[in-house]
From TrEMBL:
Keywords: Dipeptidase, Hydrolase, Protease, Serine protease. It comes from Streptomyces drozdowiczii. The keyword Protease applies. The gene is pepE. InterPro entries: Class_I_gatase-like, Peptidase_S51. One of its GO terms (molecular function) is dipeptidase activity. PANTHER family: ALPHA-ASPARTYL DIPEPTIDASE, PROTEASE S51 ALPHA-ASPARTYL DIPEPTIDASE. It is an enzyme of class 3 (hydrolase). This is Dipeptidase PepE. Belongs to the peptidase S51 family. Pfam families: Peptidase_S51. Its EC number is 3.4.13.21.
Amino acid sequence: MHLLLLSNSTQYGRGYLEHALDTVTGFLPAGARLAFVPYALADHDTYTARVRGALEPAGITVRGVHEHAEPAAALKDADAVFIGGGNSFRLLSALYRTGLREAVADAVRAGLPYMGASAGTNMAAPTLRTTNDMPIVQPPSFAALGLVPFQINPHYLDPDPASTHKGETREERLTEFLEENDVPVLGLREGSWLRVEDEAAHVEGARPARLFTRGAEPRELPAGTDVSHLLRTEPRFDAPAR
């Protein structure tokens, strides 16, 4: 498989995808016809236009799958698929409703390059259980695309030692996940991403990632770190720690 999983599509002070544009255009085939999945946001047309504005100057043709009578059919004429960010619950619900959950997974396993950002990166994991989003809708299941066998937490946020906020930190939430599930979680900070090419996976981008595993302290993973071993994960969900 060929996967580019971005933590975020917008970076402070920069345009849409601008912080990763060289990586994105290098990942997508030259002159690619890109099927864009806009269902994580409510306004599909405006969202698709935003992606067009970012990528068409690089020679990439963008068409929203919602513009097809049968959204899953859009994949047949595409050279790659991009699932954008927004609300992960709304997105997954739409993937089930349109048949894209199975269609995208099958196409990507057959070789179609897959790019995700934020909620689209969440979709690449087995489940939604490590998303940061509010469940504004209820999908039929938490089961996502399962393109990788481990969990990802996009927009991973480190605690601010100067903050007076005393609620849960992201690390505490992921630790709770690991108390109930024996599945590694890769925390992708803003500006970082995961690149998967067949059996190889590497952390890339401007910032290190953070890896959470049961029974171990979190590990910092600088850009360039080989995390191919995560592709051999055998996830164990609903397996409380003893």
